[in-house]
Amino acid sequence: MKLLAFVLMLLPTVAFSGAVRLKDLVDFDGVRGNDLVGYGLVVGLNGTGDGLRNSPFTEEIMSNILERLGVNVNGEDFRPKNVAAVLVTATLPPFSRVGSQIDVTVSAIGDSKSLLGGTLVMTPLNAADGQIYAVAQGTVLAGGAVAEGEAASVTRGVPTSGVIPSGARVEREIDFQLSGLTQLRLALREPDFTTAGRIEAAINREFNRPVAIMRDSGTVELSIAETRAASTAHAIGRIENILIEPESKARVVVDQRSGTIVMGQDVRISRVAVSQGNLTLRVEEAPIAVQPNPFAEGQTVVVPRTVAGLEEEEGTGLAEIPEATTLSEVVAGLNALGVSPRDMIDILKTIKAAGALHAEFVVR
């Protein structure tokens, strides 16, 4: 009896296959980050900064910074090689408070060769409304290396871009009151009517009353008052870990550059026959120099000689894929042809053109 009670107590927490937490499927209305950008200066570079003749904006901002520090450089001819102009980008997380720190990314915009060892001078970061929300400063951690000599150079990684962990301090907060919401919208990252319906049903089961309603394939609306939660944050905390089994479209994604093929489990192929072979055309030039006979008047003539050939590799035969084939059967059938991943991409595109591949085909 005690064992039965223990099993019944565990049943509500058992996750079925493919179950995903609600917070991994949706975005909550208003709970979002904000992009920040700023224009600054990196100093302390080992001769890898901007060439000021090619980047006059670097000299301009450097003069402005020195003047703010009380150094008058008007009329002076200074062209240091240890300074680079950069763009600083960051994302202000939701509910960030004054004094908290965020990471920033620093990228050169001039002809600087490397930002290794540089230090970003205090740079204000603006949002889309033009207001300053953070100030960045610190040592740049670049992820590359450069080595060069008189006649050659080698570069590994991207030394003209780097990051500053916790390099910006928040100076202004986003004016958003989550507790003032009476309706909370849940936006699905992959809109689907079936998934939205399951989310609605799961939330209503959690509260034992109709508190959520599906508005469309990408939106589920939650009534905060009907949840009887202490606040909007309490309501979100109660529903964000609900397990949902998402539904997805049958989709085939291929990357022609790397030869990668990804197929969903719902991909189906109608009855179709596939044959694959390669055709090679080879043309070679082998000119011959013809010399005149001894004591004969004449000139050396180059006679063209061309060797052309057309080779067709033996085909892999005709393979038939049965109707309503599953993913594993599709992979097994294509592997039976002995084709490479790149040839397999061409085969899948041809099957799609023939109307036998019942899935969305995405080429990257």
TrEMBL record:
**Where does it localize?**
Bacterial flagellum basal body
**Tell me, what is one Gene Ontology molecular-function annotation carried by this entry?**
structural molecule activity
Q: Does the keyword Signal apply?
A: yes
Specify whether Signal is a keyword of the entry: yes
Q: Which UniProt keywords apply?
A: Bacterial flagellum, Cell projection, Cilium, Flagellum, Periplasm, Signal
| Main location class | other
Question: Known InterPro entries for this protein?
Answer: Flag_FlgI
Q: Could you say which residues form the signal peptide?
A: 1-17
- Kindly list the biological process annotations in GO that this record carries: bacterial-type flagellum-dependent cell motility
Report the GO terms under cellular component: bacterial-type flagellum basal body, distal rod, P ring; outer membrane-bounded periplasmic space
Which protein family is it in? Belongs to the FlgI family.
Q: So what does this one do?
A: Assembles around the rod to form the L-ring and probably protects the motor/basal body from shearing forces during rotation.
Describe the protein's quaternary organization and the partners it interacts with. The basal body constitutes a major portion of the flagellar organelle and consists of four rings (L,P,S, and M) mounted on a central rod.
What name goes with this protein?
Answer: Flagellar P-ring protein
Q: Which gene encodes it?
A: flgI
